[in-house]
Amino acid sequence: MTENKIPYKIYLEESEMPTAWYNVRADMKTKPAPLLNPATGEPVSFDDLRAVFCDELVRQELDNDTRYIPIPQEIQDFYKMYRPSPLVRAYCLEEKLGTPAKIYYKFEGNNTSGSHKLNSAIAQAYYAKNQGLKGVTTETGAGQWGTALAMACGYLGLDCKVYMVKCSYEQKPFRREVMRTYGASVTPSPSMTTEVGRRILAEDPDTTGSLGCAISEAVEDATTHEGYRYVLGSVLNQVLLHQSVIGVETKTAMDKYGVVPDIIIGCAGGGSNLGGLISPFMGEKLRGERDYEFIAVEPASCPSLTRGVFAYDFCDTGKVCPLAKMYTLGSGFIPAANHAGGLRYHGMSPVLSELYHEGLMEARSVEQTKVFEAAEYFARVEGILPAPESSHAIRVAIDEALKCKETGEEKTILFGLTGTGYFDLYAYQKFNDGLMSDYIPTDEELQSSFNKLPAF
Amino acid sequence: MTENKIPYKIYLEESEMPTAWYNVRADMKTKPAPLLNPATGEPVSFDDLRAVFCDELVRQELDNDTRYIPIPQEIQDFYKMYRPSPLVRAYCLEEKLGTPAKIYYKFEGNNTSGSHKLNSAIAQAYYAKNQGLKGVTTETGAGQWGTALAMACGYLGLDCKVYMVKCSYEQKPFRREVMRTYGASVTPSPSMTTEVGRRILAEDPDTTGSLGCAISEAVEDATTHEGYRYVLGSVLNQVLLHQSVIGVETKTAMDKYGVVPDIIIGCAGGGSNLGGLISPFMGEKLRGERDYEFIAVEPASCPSLTRGVFAYDFCDTGKVCPLAKMYTLGSGFIPAANHAGGLRYHGMSPVLSELYHEGLMEARSVEQTKVFEAAEYFARVEGILPAPESSHAIRVAIDEALKCKETGEEKTILFGLTGTGYFDLYAYQKFNDGLMSDYIPTDEELQSSFNKLPAF
Fold first, then answer.
1. Are the beta carbons of B181 and A428 separated by less than 8 Å?
2. Predicted-complex ipTM score
3. Which of A96, A104, A264, A339 is the most interior residue, by most CB within 10 Å?
4. Which residues of chain A lie closer than 8 angstroms to B111, CB-CB?
5. Is A139 in a helix, a strand, or coil?
6. Which domains does chain A have, with CATH numbers?
7. If residue A163 lies in a helix (H) or strand (E), which one and from where to where?
8. What one-character DSSP code corresponds to residue A36?
């Protein structure tokens, strides 16, 4: 431990914190495919999007060329309240595993939203405020994103309307209360307050909701109320851009200590954390400056990269949003009811989809019982109760470290620990009681979902 | 902000972290009164106490003379997993309040136990392990201490039995699951597994339990099982000693930036956080080197310092523990049912009691609706959802900062932010729904409790 003098936790000085986000699209030879207007099938224009998103965010969404986009001072100041996040050297985990690998993780859970989501929430809320808007609408599943947005809006004095997937709303009343404490209004989705919600309820009155459906409601709410825009916590290019603060901080900290990762691992639902973490590293790879191995980890019960198709699809169930070209399971896909590990979005960030399609990134799927085993192990050894989402990355990081133990390789492994599991104790309880099971969708189920993909 | 160059958060370097605890008793002219053996009324001996506590912890409990007690390397290493905790300059709060005061808080909530309790849990578990014991028993109320102990024991591979106050066990199933995830067994108290539990249940079958009662059960469990000892999360001298890591880190960070606090504020239930935070500062005051104003903040519904008596009393309801001389409301005192803000112990650390008795420290009591108002305000402005306990300190820090606004004084205010409120959302929900009320015990109620004090 003392020979290399790397502390347990590396915190950057305030003066070393990022002043610009890293836009990895600038380095991509093949840019992510443009979003399509569902009415025309044509690429969306600036004007199409500004009905839904703030102007500045539309600019960021469409900007495939500018590598460094300055972080406004107000956002930098907000970041200082909970950032820099620590880059942790997992000495205890290494010792317990008996691996020659060196393991690092970037921990994004030390803020009240409990995850990295706050990085983009404050950016999106800031631009909305700056444009003179009254408020924003959004959807949330497990509640991490909704909590983050509520915090950002509470800070800026912006109205915040959250559509929360009904089963989460009922199973996670505490997340709801955090959002309310920050002044947000929270509506279970599908709801009777939107047309799309009423339509979905008419078709299936007992539905417990889905992210795709909540997105449709939030978009409708924003576009039918003066002074509101919709904001989204993952998938979009702009979100990956904001989340690059994770990767830039990580790279600065590693460079400072002369550490170069061999493998970079992240969980991937919509792709916001993984995309943010890898951005500056992927930039080096794309420019041919240095090679890294990137691994996206997803649930076996919602395997968009490993078993989905690369095609244009709707981002939402209600089909009111633009179409994105991405790895998808079909916008109607809903993971099996026993799935407790998060990362349940049917698609994947177009940026990550393109990188994966080009073979610049690997993907693995893992079953949730294996994920919770890793989570419990990690909690006891490293002292942090991880979010189920984050634990997907832990699982594969441990697997890779154990491979090193077999081969004797001293690889440097970096993974993203996106958040804490403090609001996921129902899932932990299931695991503690031995009641957790796995479900892997059959080829037939997936094919039936693919058959409903739009013909774009 | 830039003129004084103090960052939003001060993190010590690993090399600056404390290597010794600070024992404030060494500086006290009048030492805290000794614990008494309830059977004999005589001061407890080393041998009396070692039936209950580990040998090394008994030594620390009785050591009134050694100012610096080295922190074993293994504990220092564990501390590195979640410490140093940040000393935060509350720029946002200062600006929002429009106060000329400079506000700092030491934030102990960035670990899975959610509070400062882990600082003593790891120390007590370490000494138990080192003595070759099988395990430890303890009580927990809100669950912060039990979670901390479960984490420490999970890390060291020590058996951990937690008696959890029944109403908390039922209202806080998630805390219970965190403990279980770390491998602890959790029993609602009073229970049928101990004699004292059965006795209390026979007297009052519908009791929802109390800390004092859970202590009795845990002590009985430890003393009737080979290889077990009892550990306690507050009140005791040894706990204040371990918690001095908070104060030593704070003082090191402030000294580094040339900052001297005028007022130091902490919430006080049993006194572990406040005692730890003030230790090195109080040392200076006791030695006449520098003056500080210290303020202990307690709930108006459980006002041991402000309305209790300074007398020998039992530490537990079952009267199996030694007697301590302290400010107490009587060991049978239980706060009103509507009390949601924690800090519900009937007594107060003998060290703090003595300091308060000598006029070296002030105390204030605050009503819980005012506490939750401060909590919500703080959450929105500083981005951290505070524990109700910690919010007592926030309340008084805000009050003091507003006084400075009136007088124009540029005082430097330091307070302890002991933990997060992620597991206190029932209480927040009550507040969000406008259903929270206050209760201040009447003089008659307190007198009736005082009348039952033991005649020592």
1. yes
2. 0.94
3. A264
4. 383-384
5. strand
6. 3-17+83-114+243-450 (3.40.50.1100), 27-70+117-230 (3.40.50.1100)
7. strand A159-165
8. B
